[in-house]
Amino acid sequence: MFSTKPWDVYVEELLPIGYGHPLWSPEPISTGSREVLVGDVGWLKEGEFRALFNTTRDEDDAIHQELGVPRDFTVFSPSTALILRSDKITAPMVFSRSISASEAQAEASIDPRPGVAEDAMAKRHIVNYMRSNFDSWLEFANASNSAGGLDRRDLRPSDLLFVCGTLKTTQWAVAAFHGSEFRNKQGQIGSGRVQGPHGLETRTGVEGFSGIQVHIGDTPLPDEWCKAGPARRPTAELESHANQCLFIHYYKMKRRFLLSVEPMLAAAGPDRLPPGPQDPGPDAKVPCQGAGASACDDHRKSHEGAEAYDPVSDLLDYILLASTADIAIASDLDLITLFRRVPSRSSP
């Protein structure tokens, strides 16, 4: 029944509402001390953001103690950068646009306090910074001496993200479901323990908020399709600190890839070849074409661990296929602008 991954359904349904890319696993990674931060560079795996380093912190900052930083690392600190902090999502629950009508539906719940958003208002600086440093980021991401036990696999250029915004809370619950059998059915969210706002019931003992249960009609969702957090009750000192990241805004970058019939040596010639005859010969570079080429640096077979649903990569593909640009850089914010022009789906 559940052949689609829950984090993919979750992203597909909640991304259009405009808060950013939703994380299926909002809790800080590792031991809970490393929360997602504006300026992070990392990648997504199974709905979790995995940070490599933070561009706004110095090389010797404690946050870089485990993995280090890329070669020739420079701190991202444009003089005109503006970090805006604001309260968003004042409602206790967030639903996808299709919560009453689609075959794939999702929802997220946060605690009654507003979600805290931080956004870097420096698009031009981010684009220029990525263009200058991206190659060293990718090299660092795939270097064996920076593995850190994170199962990084073979990351492609399009897997790397630059986080330009976060939306965090202190408590959360997430659920997703997929399939026509759930259409036009009522659902219940709870655990049979402590009653919370808007009918949300969560386990609030020492172990935290991990006891969410969801029923759609008479069908309970499997545990892997709904969960809550944080896994441990926060201390009094951290109780008011919003470090559970529900959504991120990010930038991605792709280069136009050139295929070659024969292997080429690095730096063997100019980046652009002069015009040649109609038949360029067996040794000529040819730009990959068509949607199947994935516009170009993702010509390799998709690997385990990369996020399966990511429309920003599709947008980068489109930019490279529809233009002569050698580099494409785009953000989920660009998609949000497009989504706002699309009317909500209505019930059948």
Automatic annotation (TrEMBL):
Keywords: Oxidoreductase. It comes from the Eukaryota. It is an enzyme of class 1 (oxidoreductase). GO terms for molecular function: superoxide dismutase activity. Residues 269-304 are annotated as: Disordered. Its EC number is 1.15.1.1. The keyword Oxidoreductase applies. This is Superoxide dismutase (EC). The gene is Q5IFQ6.
